[in-house]
Amino acid sequence: MSVRSAVERAHRISWVVLLALVTAEFLTDPPGPGWTTTLLPAAVVSVLLLTTLALQTRAAAPRGEPRDPVAVDPPVAGRWAALNSPADKAPSHGTHVYGQTYAIDILADPEPTDGEVPARPPFRMLWPVFRRNRDFPAFGAPLLAVADATVVAASDGQRDHLSRNSLPGLVYLMLVEAAVRSVLGVHRVFGNHVILDLGDGTYAAYAHAQRGSLTVKAGDTVRAGQRIGRCGNSGNTTEPHLHFQLMDGPDLDTARGVPFSWRGVGVPAGGETFTAGEQVAPARPGDVGGAG
Q1: What is the CATH number of domain 70-276?
Q2: Which PANTHER family match (predicted)?
Q3: CA angle (179 as vertex; 209, 258 as ends), nearest 5
Q4: Residues 84-96: pLDDT tens digits?
């Protein structure tokens, strides 16, 4: 086992132990003073949790001189808006872990057309707490291969959960779901995903795809612009969107991020809208997948 794998395992075990201690405190009455049975062990585990997280982040940070951005085609078509972009900061998601240094999140933001394409629901403080996935224009939008490539991983068996784009939903995501998914591993964080081998030591990862929507499997070859799946809301997400990144390896636990540039678009900054290719209609309810 490599040092990075050992640190990753220690981090997950720390989460499990901490959650067990918190659960025991609420559901049982351990013998002896509380500071010896719960508080002290929880403090020790918390320190271990933070330490392993810091080691993970340091190990995943890019080494040496930054690589030049790799030019690839956009992974979507139509009008979209960027969020958590490496054009604003790196690491774009606040961590180098899972090869996310130069990752970007994008949300479908189509021009209104006589009500045929639904507008993206805004964030709400209290109500509605959750929304259906089909209320978001990104849900079901085609995901496209950014280059001629070979599929090295493809998984789409996880459910698409309801949105978390309200304050109570966001709190629930951050305090409950995110912790559980961190324990279960990166595949639960990324949800349904595809990883493409672009050649020259570069890999593209698409996260949060719609359940049952992937049209490729490991070992397949794809052409640039080919549809490989649809945008969904699986994994650690607040609403349907695409999380895209380039990496230097196919293993999300050990890969380091690689900068990218989309041909004809560049790297859109957070809040910036961009248009790629032609507008493609998302899948309608009943096409594939479903919300949970």
Answers
A1: 2.70.70.10
A2: MUREIN HYDROLASE ACTIVATOR ENVC (PTHR21666:SF270), PEPTIDASE-RELATED (PTHR21666)
A3: 50
A4: 999 999 999 988 8
